[in-house]
Specification:
The structure is a single chain. This protein has 296 residues and is mainly alpha-helical. The longest helix is centred in the middle third of the chain and has 31 residues. The radius of gyration is 20 Å and the shape is globular.
Length: 296
């Protein structure tokens, strides 16, 4: 999707219906998302099959209902309706995201290990991978990316351009983690910058949600279920029992390595590279008023 998709007959037309305005479409999409997620949580809460079965079923219900709502409603909203979860590139982009997310957090853990911040103090069990796979990887990876990149980023960008979308969604993503266990102002800043730029850049680069979803899920899974690092402050059992020590600026404290300078530097650099590649491909969208002026 380049900026040529936003011509004067699209979102730039002053005669377009109110529901076609990007910010109105975004509001409707958010309401649809909230309704689907709330219904999924309510319906899933009735499931009691013991763990990990309960967590798996609840995740499937929540993700499934949100996907249905996205496909049936969200993809048809706005002046330029489109599906950011296309089947055509699902496997390729999801795979790229999974590999990138796993490699990125492995690099962060490796750097922390070299600095003496992270060390393995024991072993877990393979069965401990099952629940984190769904609860801390699949669910957040899908649900958060649909909301932050598939709804907020998409329509903020259509209205205010790519830079505004990147800044606003990154800030919102950081704020959304402020109530997590062990969260601090710095942890929210770190999440906003490192994850906001990384995931926003992946979306800009591919114009698909599949790569951000895969990246987000693999990032969470690798740090928690593999290395035993808290996932955004939430303790998670993994194959290895990991221990963080040292200055909080390097270890992230109770929040985990995501709130460390190590992750901030590595992930932000990777995100900036994604954004740079997107710009080279001509994926920068200018603000709507700039597009209107240039079309005159």
């Amino acid at each position: 999707m380049g900026e040529e998709q936003f011509g004067p007959e699209g979102m730039g037309s002053t005669a377009r219906p109110l529901l076609q305005h990007p910010l109105v479409a975004m509001l409707v999409a958010v309401l649809v998302y909230i309704f689907a997620a709330a219904f999924g949580i309510a319906f899933g809460s009735a499931v009691t099959a013991g763990q990990p079965a309960t967590g798996i079923v609840q995740t499937a219900i929540n993700v499934g209902l949100t996907l249905i709502a996205y496909k049936l409603v969200v993809t048809h909203l706005g002046a330029n309706p489109r599906d950011d979860l296309p089947a055509a590139d699902a496997v390729a982009n999801l795979g790229k995201g999974l590999v990138a997310g796993a490699l990125l957090f492995s690099a962060i853990v490796a750097a922390a290990g070299l600095l003496g911040i992270y060390r393995i103090v024991g072993e877990g069990h393979w069965r401990e991978l099952v629940l984190p796979l769904f609860v801390t990887a699949v669910a957040p990876g899908f649900m958060e990316e649909v909301l932050f990149r598939g709804i907020f980023f998409r329509w903020i960008e259509e209205w205010g351009g790519s830079w505004a979308a990147l800044v606003v969604t990154s800030a919102l993503f950081g704020i959304a983690h402020i109530l997590n266990p062990g969260a601090t102002l710095f942890s929210s800043f770190a999440i906003a910058v490192e994850a906001g730029v990384l995931l926003g850049g992946a979306y800009m680069l591919t114009r698909s949600l599949w790569m951000p979803i895969g990246l987000h899920a693999a990032w969470n899974f690798t740090q928690g279920a593999i290395f035993g690092v808290p996932v955004s402050g939430i303790p998670t059992a993994g194959i290895f029992k990991g221990k963080l020590s040292g200055p909080q600026i390097l270890s992230g404290g109770r929040f985990g390595l995501e709130a460390s300078v190590i992750a901030l530097l590595i992930a932000t650099a990777s995100g900036a590279w994604f954004v740079r590649l997107a710009l080279r491909r001509g994926e920068l969208v200018r603000p709507s008023w700039v597009r209107r002026a240039s079309a005159c």
